Amino acid sequence: MTLMEDSVGVGDLVLLEPLEEEPLLKNLQLRYENKEIYTYIGNVLISMNPYQQLPIYGPEFIAKYRDYTFYELKPHIYALANVAYQSLRDRDRDQCILITGESGAGKTEASKLVMSYVAAVCGKGEQVNSVKEQLLQSNPVLEAFGNAKTIRNNNSSRFGKYMDIEFDFKGSPLGGVITNYLLEKSRVVKQLEGERNFHIFYQLLAGADAHLLEALKLKRDTSHYAYLNQKVSRVDGMDDASNFKSVQNAMTVIGFSEVEIQQVLEVTALVLKLGNVELADESQANGTSASGICDGRGVQEIGEMIGLNSEELEKALCSRTMKTAKEEVVTTLNFTQAQYARDALAKNIYSRLFNWIVNRINESIKVGSGEKKKVMGVLDIYGFEILEDNSFEQFVINYCNEKLQQVFIEMTLKEEQEEYKREGIPWTKVDYFDNGIICNLIEHNQQGILAMLDEECLRPGVVSDSTFLVKLNQVFSKHGYYESKVTQNAQRQYDRTMGLSCFRICHYAGKVTYNVNSFIDKNNDLLFRDLSQAMWKAQHPLLQSLFPEGVPTQTSLKRPPTAGAQFKSSVAILMKNLYSKNPNYIRCIKPNEHQQRGQFSSELVAVQTRYLGLLENVRVRRAGYAYRQRYGPFLERYRLLGRSTWPRWNGGDREGVEKVLGELSLSSEELAFGKTKIFIRSPKTLFYLEEKRRLRLQQLATLIQKIYRGWRCRTHYQLMRKSQILISSWFRGNMQRKRYAKIKASVVLIQAFVRGWKARKDYRKYFRSGAALTLADFIYKSITQKFLLGLRNNLPSTNVLDRTWPAAPYRCFNTANQELQQLFYRWKCKRFRDRLSPKQVEILKEKLCASELFKGKKASYPQSVPIPFCGDYLGLQGNPKLQKLKGGEEGPVLMADTVKKVNRGNGKTSSRILLLTKGHVILIDTKKSQAKTVIGLDSVAEVSVTSFKDGLFSLHLNEISSVGSRGDFLLVSEHVIELLTKMYQAVLDATQRQLLISVTEKFSVRFKESSVAVKVIQGPEGDRNGKLKCKKKGSRCLEVTV
């Protein structure tokens, strides 16, 4: 029932009062100006083209309309699409959606919206999405090849389209079939002023890259092509280059191969190039007229592109072969005939290409024959046309619309009759205009206009449009829906608008005058056999397939069916298809001729409402009862009008409706109670109910306001009373608390005085003599506590090198402060040692030993402190020869270093390798890698070393040892501190004695049986380098400068 709430005008024209053309137009105008572009006639949707994007589409609105029934929300195309889809999915009823209206009314957009809605609400899945994408992508391809800019519409469909979308039992799309009707192929060769040819020509020239244009032998400028209107090459708001890319992508999605796309573009280019073939008027030797090609270059380019000899194409364009059963005659074509042949070829190529594209799309989206399927058809076809000059095209278009109107009336009445029967309400015969007599006038097999047109085309002898008109006048002279100049004269009527070559038919939408000129040619739609055969001979697979009749071995002398007969047959198949489905109608209306938003032309809309038969639709819909609704929603909306049903009703829905309407005393003739619905005959009764409901809502609103105001006043009073009581209680409590506080303060003061008096009395009696000691003890404990707490809060860091400590605040705490400092330092050291690994402990022990031996004695000691002891300075692990020399029982090498041995005789130095093990000192010749001397640690008696930064030291050996008999050793090492420290520890471990290390600048060295005094002095450059200079002074003295 939301249809009547917040509605602008009347949302359903079935409820329009009075039912006349002027109120109908005013209602449509009112809704259009308020951007309400959709209106219902029962289940028929009227759509006004807004010429702007309105915010009433998209996923949000799709979700909204899929959850509600048809009349629960405002009129919308989604509501109609939802009804059709749900009926197909849930009730297994095949559907068809008929979209009609004149060019520019928005039929194409309406069909897109229907398809997009169905695609959005149906099932999901990879295969389903692929099918949906193919169905949706068929639109841009068909629009490119079948749409064009006209005076009325920038994207006008120049063909009729019927698409069957096939679904499985779950409602998911499986595929579809597209049928096209009556492509306006005359547009290929000629367009009216202000119009364009089909979009694809402009898209190809604007969007193709340079390589593709070169392959197709085309130029980008449209002015080079005679078939393209030079004045209108661009359309505002349309990007031809971008659209061309979209068309290529769409063809790929549908399933066209790269080769097929290229061939389609080649045939399209062929049509353009045919228009540039210039013909000349020539004469033969016998004086008869003939024709020829002005410039053979155009024909040659066409031949190269399609693989055809240019001479054969020129011959087919300028001559015609007539075949009979006995002979074959070749006649030349004059200039006019040759132009007709060229244009007929271009039109046929394009028309057949369009049909091939439709069939190719059908191949991609077709469904297997074995699958059970449901079908939804969408018909997008021309609306009724009445132009200033109406020809054969308008005749067949209006014939199709007559058939659609016949379907609409019969299906609507049938639906009404079925609903009445279903609800158990008597059906009364409805008087309406049956346009079957007009359809019969056009399509009768013997006496119909189309049949006589075919007969005239096939008749031997002189045949012309005039003879065809004469025949019509003879046959239909007394027909009530046919007029011509002859029939008017016979009835003594005078009509200036009726031409001599015209006839008029009284269609359901009005009288239309047709000019018979070119009826015969357009119905014949002939293409000379020479042209068909020439196209078949082309080495182009697609072009060959378009002209199967060109095969020489299959040449038939039988005349092909006429355009009228083909269209009549297509319409008959379409009508049969529509009768087998449940119809849904969308009537599209164009509000103005200028495609301007917000403009409403009453005259133009009035003409279209007559074309579409909207008033007739409303009358048929209102033939019985204008309004019907299920009992439940009706009772929910109107139960507030009955005393017994408001505010609560516990009975059945039908009994409740009967109670409400019975209390309103409505006429029984206005009402009918079906099995599930209530029927109301006239809109006045429904409007009466709505007015009563509106007044009742006002009464209820007033009642609610009254009750609410009373409740609000009572609540306010109760709140104020509660607040007053609360404030009073708080005030009294506060006064009592203040009084109690004063009493308490007085009592505390008295108690304090009494306690003070008693304390003073007791003090004088017991504590006066020992007061000084007690106070002193208390003060000392206080400052001690303060000192310790302050020390706790100001402890230094736990770094063992940090020896800082806060000073004692009083001298009496100095001793305790020093003890605490020592305890803290020892704790830090203990904590540091506990964190060391065994290896780090050994390193530190060696460093400690070095400190005890050399600290303050040797000048190079401070430099060695931060450097860790390495031990192996030779890479012993990688030298197996040296490892062999140390012996297998010696254990690990404690020190491996290169040293210099000083010759005691002449003071010269030579390089040696020193290996220190747990039991020996081994000196090795660096050149021969052989052990020169092995000294047992028990043989080492003493070591002498200088106090300078040099590395000179002397090993003093026991005389009784085998090695010691040869004398002491004077050596130089860069790592003397580490070497002597490790040697000291090794001797201690091996012999349990401490090795004596003397730090002195004068010492003696034994040399066999004699001794040499060594004196070490520091030279002027001693601080800068570590080179030693040995100088022999006499036979018993060696001076070493470091």
UniProtKB/TrEMBL annotation:
Region (Actin-binding): 571-593
GO CC, any one term: plasma membrane
Pfam families, sorted: IQ, Myosin_head, Myosin_TH1
Molecular functions per Gene Ontology: actin filament binding; ATP binding; calmodulin binding; microfilament motor activity
InterPro entries according to UniProt: IQ_motif_EF-hand-BS (IPR000048), Kinesin_motor_dom_sf (IPR036961), Myosin_head_motor_dom-like (IPR001609), Myosin_TH1 (IPR010926), MYSc_Myo1 (IPR036072), P-loop_NTPase (IPR027417)
Residue ranges of domain Myosin motor in the record: 8-694
Domain TH1: 858-1042
Keywords: Actin-binding, ATP-binding, Calmodulin-binding, Motor protein, Myosin, Nucleotide-binding, Phosphoprotein, Repeat
Residues at which ATP binds: G101, E102, S103, G104, A105, G106, K107, T108
GO biological process: actin filament organization; actin filament-based movement; endocytosis; sensory perception of sound
Family, as annotated: Belongs to the TRAFAC class myosin-kinesin ATPase superfamily. Myosin family.
Role description: Involved in directing the movement of organelles along actin filaments.
Name of this protein: Unconventional myosin-Ia
